[in-house]
Amino acid sequence: MKIGVLTSGGDAPGMNAAIRAAVRQADALGHEAWGIYRGYQGLLEGDLAPLPNRACANILQRGGTILQTARCPQFHDPAQRAIAAGHLKRAGIEALVVIGGDGSFRAAEVFQREQGVACAGIPGTIDNDLSGTERTLGFDTALNTAVEAIDRIRDTASSHGRLFLIEVMGRSSGMLAVHTAVACGAEAVLYPESPEDSYENLVSQLNANWLRGKRSSIVVVAEGDTVGRAVAVGERLKRDHDLDLRVVVLGHIQRGGSPTATDRIWGSRWGAEAVRRLDKGERGFYLGEVAGALVAQPLSRVLEAQPVPPGELGRLISVLAR
Ligand code: ADP
Known about the structure:
By secondary structure, the chain is of the alpha/beta class. Strand 7 (about 190), helix 7 (about 200-210) and strand 8 form a beta-alpha-beta unit. It folds into 2 domains: about 1-140 and about 260-305, 3-Layer(aba) Sandwich (Rossmann fold); about 140-255, Rossmann fold (3-Layer(aba) Sandwich), CATH 3.40.50.460. It starts with a strand and ends with a helix. It has 11 helices and 11 strands. The chain has helices spanning about 15-30, 40-45, 80-90, 100-115, 140-160, 175-185, 200-210, 230-240, 260-280, 300-305, 310-320; strands at about 1-5, 30-35, 50, 95-100, 120-125, 165-170, 190, 215-220, 245-250, 285-290, 295-300.
């Protein structure tokens, strides 16, 4: 069997580990792996080629994705998806390993249903916002990158007795923000799923900290749907309270860098498992981790379920910042 591998949506450290594992597991089972470049965009354009074992040498420790990635609005159009299926058919590719987030999985689900191409999903997004898995590739690396950056900012914040608002990624999910905030001992966190995510609440938290004698504070802000949210909150705080504050948007620094051992290990496990399951004739599933175990779910589950917001950790922050 020929098995195509693609990475789609936002890039995430650990994607290369999954590519490498899928390619080498395919080879071990007597299949041929093909690389599809730039996600669904490359699939539409027929940008695909055999991906031999040696092409995956020395990529395990590299961030990003050697297959590159893209967003591809045309893939929402069934006529375009039929063109994409034609490219696979001509190359003799019967199955796809899709490494990406929930959008990429939605695409795989509809593509399999319409075009009959067997699809397997591997969660790859730094946001960790997929239902049915407690882990996604890149989250652990992005978290550690953000923590390292904020530790540096903490030094200068405490030296000057300053307030820092630090924006982290996460689109509509507060996972990265909340985990980062706990790991950095942040004084407050703003994230979209929180009932306490309001300007007034933040002001009262900062006031309470001031009265307790804290002269510097770190506030982690999830970018939410609008990148630049920390800047907006900072302007308002300066206007209303004349505070000496600084805003840092960590931005794309969080996406890059060598994957942590954890992301490499899960990328390797999921890449190999996806191919083993395709080899057995399974289709229409995505892999994940629940309570430490590798699990598989039907791709259709992505259409139904909502990811769990990081509630308990979020509540811990105001207690520990006292
Ligand atoms: P992620 O996979 O990280 O969530 P996106 O939401 O941008 O990233 O999705 C990646 C790509 O998947 C999109 O650019 C598009 O090509 C495809 N896609 C997403 N949702 C759908 C859908 N409902 N139907 C078809 N294709 C989709």
